[in-house]
Design brief:
The protein has 714 residues and is an alpha+beta fold. The protein is 53% helix and 6% strand. Among the domains are: 6-178, Orthogonal Bundle (Neurolysin, domain 3), CATH 1.10.1370.40; 212-275, no CATH class; 390-521, Collagenase (Catalytic Domain) (3-Layer(aba) Sandwich).
Length: 714
């Protein structure tokens, strides 16, 4: 998800994050750089992705940085007494050109990376860090914000404005505005150094994703489903290796290969390539970068009087303290690893029955788990995939959006608006009842060289009304393997859930009903909640009966197969929960530890051993490629947020399950939109949830959803 507008200069900026900003009126006389020009065309203007040229980046960034700093200088030096309008609202209007430049460069950084792009990232990351420090350490500017904040405590503003002022004040205070001159200088230097290391970390991971491809031959395809064979052949052809089959070093390629391949040694090779990203002892190894990051983060928060990074980081999150976050994770961890023990025992039994003289290793887990699934539930994941076509799933998402949000999605013809790659398609989003235009939705579904792995959502432009209504431009990006020509894209149930999840982020942006740009930001341990909740609609009868149809026969997925899927809903939860929680716990424990002289590889091994991490699986994101935490600060000591959000998700899902209309109950859906989606960050998340549910969330629903024992009440 994107950063909120005001947070862009209060965090170390990782180039590749898409941000949008308010209005800036001054225009130079000469022809404007295409990356800075106002967006024109239909739908209140759209990005000119067809005019993107990397050679325009340096000038665009140099001009945007200068004008952004000038905007804040004007606010800081305004001779009029500080007010909400001439200070905080004025900050909302600053930096429109910078936002446009970031949108374009975010595309290059995430979707079209190249050595030239990475060179620019390295060059400009420190410059943006310096810009951020100049703003956050501007004494006059902070004094004006502080004046407005203190006045609002005496005479509160309307709720959204009050929260906006609080966010602005906390942003300055948490980022060193109250430091003395010497400490401010050191704080800025740390941010500058971190910005460079973050970029290096991310580029090292991308190098290893692109650089380690496993090519296999026809006689090594045993066990692989037809769809994977065809996509692997196409991937090899695209890489100039026609006649071979390419297993790329991304999760979308690795995961199905480890699930189905009968070739154990190849499974080990693919597994090793994937989980060794950033940890190969070469020039792209990230262990030294991790050590530097941890040390610099600790030094920086100590300047502010905090004991450690999590204490500083979580003060304005839902968890509030690292202890609260740890308490949640530690409440779930014992049940998760206990379930892993049961799962491994089941897998070992199957391996023994098959006469496989092996002991379960991490590269075996998915393979034998799939065999256990078939044995226990007679459920074949590849059989399920035949009913999960990407195009149908997309239409299913549109149906859910129509039922819950009253949205209608209409495909735009190619060429109607510019796109940055031929794979990108665009839909207009309107209100089903009134026909009013709400925004556009861009979909970039396929993996390709230069595109970072995983799935994510961005907002090229966010909703706002404070200076005229602005409509939304949202996007979803995935890494599905592009099929051979004429073949459908078939995905796993897990990938289908992820598709719905990321669409939840897009719906969060599209449903926004806030006044100010910064209100579209979010509290990190809350922003994943809405998207996690949307996953629940994948398994509703309405979606199943209308959109899960066999890719060849067109027949609706049999009720017997759906029953098997639902019966197996808690299957492999030990694996899923443990691999996630291991990453979340390591994130927190790394930042709570003394960073002096830390050896990240050794610390990871010893800490996981102390946690009794099962040897048969690994963290979802091993530390050397844990980009959520070490290629920026978005999820640093906040990866627990997925679990925090999942507590809310499970609890909110039960509200629908208990309603007369189930998951499509109109009354509960209206409250969902009103309190959990539309307010974005204009309302305190805890208050918003209480308005929706009538109470705080309980962990009990989460434990029930995962099939774990519900903790006894003390």
């Amino acid at each position: 998800m994107k950063l909120s507008k005001n947070s862009r200069w209060l965090t170390s900026i990782s180039l590749g994050i898409t941000m949008t900003f308010g209005a800036y009126a001054q225009e130079p006389a000469k022809q404007e750089n295409p990356l800075l020009a106002a967006w024109t065309g239909p739908y209140s203007g759209v990005p000119a992705f067809d005019q993107m040229d990397l050679k325009d980046v340096p000038e665009a960034f140099d001009v945007a940085i200068a004008e952004n700093l000038a905007d804040y200088e004007r606010i800081a030096n305004n001779p009029e007494p500080a007010t909400f309008e001439n200070t905080v609202v004025a900050m909302e209007k600053a930096g429109e050109k910078l936002g446009r430049a970031f949108t374009y460069f975010g595309i290059w950084g995430s979707n079209l990376s190249s050595p030239e792009v990475r060179k620019l990232q390295m060059e400009y990351s420190p410059k943006f860090s310096e810009m951020g420090s100049k703003i956050s350490q501007n004494k006059k500017l902070f004094e004006r914000v502080k004046t407005v904040y203190e006045a609002s405590l005496e005479n509160p503003l309307e709720p959204e404005a009050q929260r906006l002022v609080l966010g602005a004040y906390e942003g300055f205070a948490m980022n060193g505005a109250n430091l003395d001159a010497f400490s401010k200088k050191r704080y800025a230097a740390i941010n500058k150094e971190l910005s460079s290391i973050y970029t290096t970390f991310a580029n090292n991971v991308l190098h290893d994703e692109e650089g380690y491809v496993t090519y296999i031959h026809k006689h090594q395809l045993s066990g692989l489903p037809e769809s994977l064979v065809k996509s692997a052949a196409q991937a090899a052809k695209d890489k100039g290796m026609e006649g071979h089959y390419a297993i790329t070093n991304t999760r979308s390629s690795m995961d199905p290969f480890l699930t189905y391949s009968d070739e154990r040694e190849l499974r080990k090779k693919v597994w090793t390539n994937y989980y060794s990203r950033g940890d190969n002892g070469d020039e792209y190894d990230n262990n030294e970068n991790i050590a530097k990051i941890l040390k610099l983060r600790r030094e920086r928060v100590e300047l502010l009087g905090h004991k450690n990074y999590p204490e500083w980081r979580l003060q304005n999150r839902m968890a509030k303290t690292p202890e609260n976050a740890m308490n949640l994770m530690e409440a779930v961890w014992p049940a998760a690893i206990a379930r892993v023990k049961e799962e491994v025992a089941d897998m070992q039994t199957v391996a023994d029955e098959l006469g496989h003289d092996i002991t379960i290793e991490p590269w075996d887990y998915r393979y034998y788990a799939e065999k256990v699934r078939k044995k226990k539930y007679d459920l074949d994941s590849n059989e399920v995939k035949q009913y999960l076509q990407l195009d149908n799933l997309r239409e299913a998402m549109f149906y859910v959006a129509g039922e819950l949000f009253n949205f209608k999605f209409t495909a735009l013809p190619d060429g109607k608006v510019p796109v940055y790659h031929e794979d990108v398609k665009v839909w207009e989003v309107t209100d089903k009842t009134s026909g009013a235009h709400i925004g556009l939705w861009y979909l970039d579904p396929f993996a390709r060289p230069g595109k970072r792995s995983g799935a994510w959502a961005n907002a090229y432009r966010s909703h706002e009304t404070y200076d005229g209504k602005v409509t939304v431009l949202s996007s979803n990006n995935s890494n599905f393997i592009k099929p051979a020509p004429g073949e459908p894209v078939l995905v796993s149930w897990s990938d289908a859930e992820t598709f719905f999840h990321e669409f939840g982020h897009a719906l969060h942006a599209l449903s926004s009903n806030v006044k100010y740009p910064s209100s579209n930001g979010g509290v990190r341990d809350y922003t994943e909640f809405q998207s996690q909740l949307l996953e629940r609609w994948l398994s509703t009868d309405e979606v199943i009966n209308n959109y899960m149809k066999h890719q060849k026969t067109g027949e609706v997925i049999p009720k017997e197969l759906i029953a098997k899927i639902k019966n197996a809903a808690t299957f492999n939860q030990g694996f899923g929960t443990t691999e996630y929680l291991a990453s979340a716990l390591m994130d927190m424990k790394f930042h709570l530890a003394d960073p002096e002289g830390i050896d990240p590889d050794k610390f990871e091994r010893e800490t996981l051993a102390a946690l009794n991490m099962p040897k048969e699986l690994v963290m979802r994101h091993r530390t050397p490629h844990f980009g959520h935490v070490f290629s920026g600060e978005g999820y640093a000591t906040a990866y627990y947020g997925y679990m925090w959000a999942d507590v809310l998700t499970a609890d909110a899902a039960e509200a629908f399950e208990q309603a007369p209309g189930g998951y499509y109950d109109k009354e509960v859906a209206a409250k969902l939109v009103k309190y959990l989606f539309a307010p974005r960050n204009s309302m305190d998340p805890a208050e918003a949830y209480r308005k929706f549910r009538g109470r705080d969330a309980s962990i009990d629903a989460l434990m029930r959803a995962r099939g774990f024992p519900v903790p006894e009440k003390k």
